[in-house]
Amino acid sequence: MTVTPSFARSRLLMPGIIGCLVVTALLGWFALHQKAVPPSVAPIVKIDSPPPTGVLTDPVKIFQRAFWRSPAPDDRILHAERREWSDSGGLKRWQWFIAVEPSPALMKYLRADNAFGLVPFPMKLDLTGPPEWFAFSPAEVDVLAAPRGNLRLIFSKTKNQLFAMDSGSGFQPGATAAPAPSGPPVTVSGRLPAVSPPTPSVR
Length: 203
Known about the structure:
Layout: H1 5-33, E1 44-45, E2 54-56, H2 59-67, E3 76-87, E4 90-101, H3 104-112, E5 119-120, E6 127-128, E7 141-145, E8 152-156, E9 162-169
Parallel strand pairs: 1-6
Antiparallel strand pairs: 2-3, 3-4, 4-9, 5-7, 7-8, 8-9
């Protein structure tokens, strides 16, 4: 039997081709059967703006601003933080975070009564620079959100724990006053004088 050069070359290349096919098949099998590992905590997106000009940590005041009521004796505030960005014109932006072991009354107020008119939030929660203690497993919480706003209430499914967060802009400068009309004074005919009576000074 005469062996041609092309036949000999193909016999030499055949094991390499088979090996490549086997490796490719194994890699494809592993890619199909590998399970994605869920994140242990909610993702954190670092804030792009400069650091806040003020940070408040008074738990009672932050609770009052968050829930529009004072904490009851059985409301246990675990952590609280409010950040503010101000300049010479006043407050420009604010952001707060709080973690609470809520009382039954607070849970009823927030969930059953739905005091803030929130709706279920099925999308992935996008957090902006929260404190380290503001961490939880996304699969183990229910999230309610304001339809038009940034308020989020995050209820643990496994324990009596509530996380909440909100953010917004501060005071905006008012409109400038309209210029006074120019021209000759308007005279008013009739029995009343054309000018108002003097206003007494207030001390």
